Amino acid sequence: MCRLVSEAASRGEQDIIGDARRIAGEPEDSTYIPSDPKEFCSRVFHTCYMGTSNSSADTRGRAKELAQAIGSYHVDLNMDTVVSAVQTLFSTVTGLRPRFKVHGGSSAENLALQNIQARLRMVLAYMFAQLLPWVRGRAGGLLVLGSANVDESLRGYLTKYDCSSADINPIGGISKTDLKKFIAYAQTQFELPILEKFLTATPTAELEPITETYVQADEADMGMTYDELSIFGRLRKVEKCGPYSMFSKLVNEWGSMLSPLQIASKVKLFFYEYARNRHKMTTLTPSYHAESYSPDDNR
Asked: Could you report the per-residue pLDDT of 46-95, keeping only the tens digit for each?
């Protein structure tokens, strides 16, 4: 967007220049011209890495490098004190201290501790969106952008009211497979070599402790790959498949790689998770819809 604004400004398009000045918080008599996309980005786009003790140095470093490459105003913080405060409150009330599974906790404890981190990120995102302009001596507030893609939404692989909850979600109508294709395009088209690290990184929520023998991974948690999930989503929405018709189509497509029992198991798992997570779909952030496979309840 910043590149398009800069190109329009270089052509002297006054409507675009006027809108850019207004969005950037310039006074009415300003002569500011958004000629540099990175400089304009630093005025209007804010990024925030909200790390915990479960976050890796790799993801933190990638976030910082990408922010520098595009020119966003970047905040890097640790929110362990906030997470710890919520856990302490729960322990004070109940007399019990939940533990992660790798530390001997139950599945319920493990999931609850992950959800605490995810939901606090939404709270912090809105706080920083409201106050970062004030911090920078500017008026107004910011829109919060969501980060859940179609596949995660269909599968229900997200925490209700986490960072998927926002004002608008630019990628909410795009599958992970197509999103990776766009990132690969942007890597060369916009000269952003840092994006290569995002393409090759293992997708992970980083909500559980990293140990010598365990690193959380999205596809392992979901029980299916993102490529498989994209296919399930297209068959469900575009071709209107139910469990049996989806199984029948996939037996023909995957029959050389998987047995009918394996295919049936994957289809059953998808529809089980799809059905039990429908409540999440009705609360998803409004998205930009560019494909026919978009979730029907993602308003």
From this structure: 999 999 999 999 999 999 999 999 999 999 999 999 999 999 999 999 99
Amino acid at 136: R
Alpha-carbon gap, residue 49 to 143, rounded angstroms? 16
Contact 87, 116 (CB under 8 A): yes
Closest CA to 56 of 276, 214, 223: 214
The one-letter amino acid at 190: F
Residues 6+ apart with CB under 8 A from 59: 49, 51, 201, 204, 206
Query: Do 77 and 50 touch, CB atoms closer than 8 A?
Result: yes
Tokens at residue 137, please? 């001596």
Tokens of 62: 């990638």
SS3 86: helix
Please give the Cα distance from 44 to 36 (Å, whole number).
13
Distance from first CA to last CA of the chain, Å, rounded?
23
DSSP state of 285: P
For the chain, strand residue ranges (E) read 46-51, 73-78
For residue 251, count CB atoms less than 10 angstroms from its CB and return exposed for 0-12, middle for 13-18, buried for 19 or more.
middle
Find out whether 72 and 47 touch, Cβ atoms under 8 Å.
Answer: yes
In terms of pTM, does the model score above 0.85?
yes
Residue 91 in 3-state DSSP? helix
Spatial separation of the C-alpha atoms in residues 293 and 235, rounded to whole Å: 8
